[in-house]
Design brief:
Radius of gyration: 24 Å
Structural class: mainly alpha
Strand content: under 5%
Number of strands: 0
Largest sheet: none
Shape: elongated
Number of helices: 5
Length: 165
């Protein structure tokens, strides 16, 4: 294999992997949108006096609006953690599917299989990051465990393939 060909193969593998992970990440965002954060201005500054003077006290109406906003923000934070957990599970599942596809291609189209497996690894990384955002220790452990298993499988397949040559 020529040096130029190996550079192309490497670049193609990286490019394909990034595209696969982006496709999955943007696909999840398109079909499963994130919860929308409450608009601070909608709650607090909807009164007749939007600017509070430094010496002025907060009106009872503004205090009620602030509490409503705080409550809405707390709910949004909970929703976002649940959303991150769900996105992590979706990405993790798709990472496994992409890995299986890569394994199926590994005997016929080596360069395609390498790119697909790299896409699986990047998707797995996205899943781990979203799992961390869920702030659930047990869930993070499960995601990392699955990630470790996938990484070992990919490493084994690549090392076995390279030792057969």
């Amino acid at each position: 294999m020529s040096h130029q060909s190996s550079i192309f193969n490497f670049a193609y593998t990286i490019f394909l992997g990034i595209l696969i992970a982006s496709f999955i990440g943007f696909g999840i965002a398109a079909f499963y949108p994130a919860p929308i954060a409450p608009d601070y201005n909608e709650f607090v500054f909807s009164t007749s006096r939007p600017v509070i003077e430094p010496d002025a006290s907060i009106s009872a109406e503004q205090e009620v609006k602030q509490k409503e906003y705080d409550s809405a923000w707390t709910q949004h934070t909970k929703d976002l953690k649940e959303y991150s957990k769900n996105v992590s599970l979706i990405a993790l599942s798709l990472s496994v599917v992409v890995l299986v596809v890569g394994i199926l291609f590994s005997k016929k189209l080596m360069i395609l299989a390498d790119g697909v497996m790299f896409g699986s690894v990047l998707t797995l990384l996205y899943s781990v990051i979203r799992g961390i955002e869920s702030e659930d220790a047990m869930f993070r452990f499960v995601v990392i465990t699955v990630g470790l298993c996938i990484s070992v499988v990919i490493g084994y397949l690549k090392l076995r393939k390279n030792s057969v040559k």
